[in-house]
């Protein structure tokens, strides 16, 4: 599966977003080296802090199915916003630990496309190595 196809999967996942409060819809699709794809959408809650972002939904779905960091080939994150959805701070912290540093992260809103990595998004990281010593 190529970049364009994974982004398409993320847009399909975006249709499952539950976002009655923000009306901002996000979808994510995580591609594994074996070709499997795990999707996620943002799921909001009346208690706003209980909201789960799309990329965390996708990564947690993959991990829940036994996938681990080295199995992950790429992550696409899409939104219906006016600009691409750069992962929020909480998601960045999760991605630092759960996906490879140089795993391609493909962002799109259908008009703008940005390719990045978690290494690039968070140059100075707090990681498991700081805690486990
Ligand atoms: N959101 C994501 O799904 N991913 C991000 O990285 C940024 C924010 C969602 C959470 C919430 O449902 C909505 O976008 C507005 O913050």
Q: Could you list some keywords that capture this structure?
A:
alpha+beta, Cytidine Deaminase, domain 2, five-stranded mixed β-sheet, binds tetrahydrodeoxyuridine, single chain
CATH architecture assignment: 3-Layer(aba) Sandwich
Strand count, sense and barrel status of the largest sheet are: 5 strands, mixed
Mean pLDDT level: 98
- Strand percentage lies at 15-25%
Number of folding domains? 1
CATH homologous superfamily title: Cytidine Deaminase, domain 2
Total DSSP E strands: 5
Helix count? 5
CATH topology tier name:
Cytidine Deaminase, domain 2
Bound molecules: tetrahydrodeoxyuridine
User: What radius of gyration results from the CA coordinates?
Assistant: 14 Å
Give the helix/strand class: alpha+beta
Assign the CATH class.
Alpha Beta
Shape: globular
**Strand/helix succession:** HEEHEHEEHH
Helix content: 25-40%
Strand order of the largest sheet: 2-1-3-4-5
Low-confidence stretches: none
Separation of termini? Answer: 39 Å
Written description of the protein model:
This protein is of the alpha+beta class. It has a single domain (3-131), classed as Cytidine Deaminase, domain 2. Helix content is 31%, strand content 21%. The chain has helices spanning 3-14, 54-64, 89-98, 118-121, 128-131; strands at 26-32, 37-41, 72-79, 105-108, 113-116. Strands 2-1-3-4-5 form a five-stranded mixed β-sheet. α3 links the parallel β3 and β4. The model has no long low-confidence stretch (mean pLDDT 98).
């Amino acid at each position: 599966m190529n970049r364009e196809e994974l982004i398409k999967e993320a847009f399909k996942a975006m249709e499952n977003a539950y976002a009655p409060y923000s009306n901002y819809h996000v979808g994510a699709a995580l591609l594994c080296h074996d070709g499997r794809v795990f999707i996620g959408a943002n799921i909001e809650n009346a208690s706003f802090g209980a909201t789960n972002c799309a990329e965390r939904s996708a990564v947690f779905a993959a991990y829940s199915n036994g996938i681990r960091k080295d199995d992950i080939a790429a992550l696409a994150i899409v939104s219906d916003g006016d600009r691409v959805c750069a992962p929020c701070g909480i998601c960045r912290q999760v991605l630092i630990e759960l996906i490879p540093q140089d795993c391609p992260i493909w962002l799109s809103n259908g008009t703008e496309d940005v390719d990045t990595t978690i290494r690039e998004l968070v140059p100075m990281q707090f990681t498991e190595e700081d805690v486990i010593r």
